[in-house]
Amino acid sequence: MSATLNLTAQDQATIRSAAYGAVSLLAAASAKPSKAATVGSLALLSATGPIGHLLNAKSKDIHLPGKTVAQLADQVLPALTTATTLLTHQDPAEADNFRTTVLTALEAAAATTPAPQPAVTEMTRKITEALHTA
Q: What angle do CA 22, 93, 105 make, to 5 degrees?
């Protein structure tokens, strides 16, 4: 990881959970949730720079409990804002890289269905808002 980021283990877990949680939220809103989750996760794994290293690290610190989309959203949306805030304070360029990476993963996941779906569009809006609240 870059010397410009000095993240605690908890910070790293928050960032990973936020990114993978965003993909999980979008997949839950999709007509093809398994395909959306797979494609979105693969897009996260294509990230570069310090964020790419962080998202590609083998870890067991991603915890996304919840049995409903609402419960997952209650956890993931604030985590996205927290992750973006943490990164903005340390390296604004990496915060932008994180936002772009997550939005690219959402775009890839949303493309798994041929026509736009209102639930996917709305979930993308909520995630985008959380990413830009910092």
A: 25
The residue behind tokens 């809103």 is: 29
Tell me the H-state helices in the chain: 9-29, 33-45, 49-56, 69-90, 92-110, 118-131
Contacts of 47 (CB under 8 A, 6+ apart): 55, 56, 97, 101
The pTM of the full predicted model, rounded to 2 decimals, is: 0.92
Which tens digit of pLDDT belongs to each residue from 38-89?
999 999 999 999 999 999 988 888 888 888 999 999 999 999 999 999 999 9
How far is it, in rounded angstroms, from Cα 80 to Cα 102? 9
User: Domain boundaries in the chain?
Assistant: 9-131
Q: d(Cα 2, Cα 17) in Å, to the nearest integer?
A: 20
